[in-house]
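Follow-up to my earlier ticket, as requested here are the two runs.
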Amino acid sequence: MNTKYMNPYLAGFLLGLVLLATVYITGHGLGASGALKSVTTSTVWAVAPAHAAKSEYFGAAHPQGQSPLMEWMVFEALGVIIGAFISGVISDRLSFTLERPAHVKSWVRIIGAFVGGALFGIGSQFGRGCTSGAALSGMAVLSAGGYLTMLAIFGSAYAVAFFFRRLWHQGA
């Protein structure tokens, strides 16, 4: 199996070019949390249109009857998913396995992933954007908030990494 990864400096440079192109073409930075919001809004409008019409939140996300699924972030998220799949195929790293330590059961790992993802999604709504939108796009326009967000992301990751690393390797 070929597990060669791209040079991280080259990958960072290319990500910067993608961010620059995104700002130039769309007038927006990168971001992903809005895609899930658009899918959720479309689902609520499809399942409970009367409730959605009365809701200030869902009503504002569905202007003039245009589908929230036509938002650019939905297409961005689809591109990320398709691109990741193609990258996995090209680099021979595509596998449908669940990475976990031997002492952790599969269902615990899956529930932990869903809980972590849900907390991340809730946090992105409280923070009015995900890490890619707040940190990368914020830093690209020299926003103090972007730099503070990046410091908070990496600072909290380093603060808790020791404990999670020990949990991961506990049974080894």
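Run two:
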Amino acid sequence: MTIEEERESQLTASVTLPLKPFYFIRHGETEWNKSSIIMGSTDIPLNELGLRQAQEASQTLKNESFDVIVSSPRKRAQKTAEIIAKKTNKPLLLEEGLTEIVWGEAEGKPMDPTKSIFDDGHRPKGAETFSAFQCRVLETISSVVLMEKLPLIVSHGGVFKALTHHMGYKDLSSSNCIPFFFRPPDDSKHPWIICSLKEGDV
């Protein structure tokens, strides 16, 4: 581990999420999701299935109690958020800190199932380290949940992994457009409760 990576790791460890509830949903499907191609910072739009998924998710979310939608500005997330905002009549804010991890030279290439997002020892050229990414995600989500209004966060699969990894869930992932409710513990010694809002999903 380099000095910079050690500093990033220490910063991440120092971030404590406020014990306040929030909703989270990953964007709908894109053609690159369908073909298992790495997106990262590349701005790929939703495909037809992704648009339908966002519509279905908006139906699920229309009776939930969130007050504001805070989204990554990437096309795939922003369009998902716009569809949900229209159905739920909630205000929409964009937040750059919620964007997906930058994968550098790996973007546009097929996913390698042997590589892990958590491994800072073998990053593609130009990629964000997981430590720096997780620190960015935690700081951004902390600021979002400290708003007076209960938020729905619309973001990316890597953001979900970074967030839940920090909470002690080492191998959770999110399918496209599955809404979750994050319920805080009574104190920081207990785990967060992560509830899928999709009927039949665990």
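The only thing I checked on run two: Helices lie at 3-14, 31-34, 48-61, 75-88, 130-145, 157-166. Let me know what else you need.
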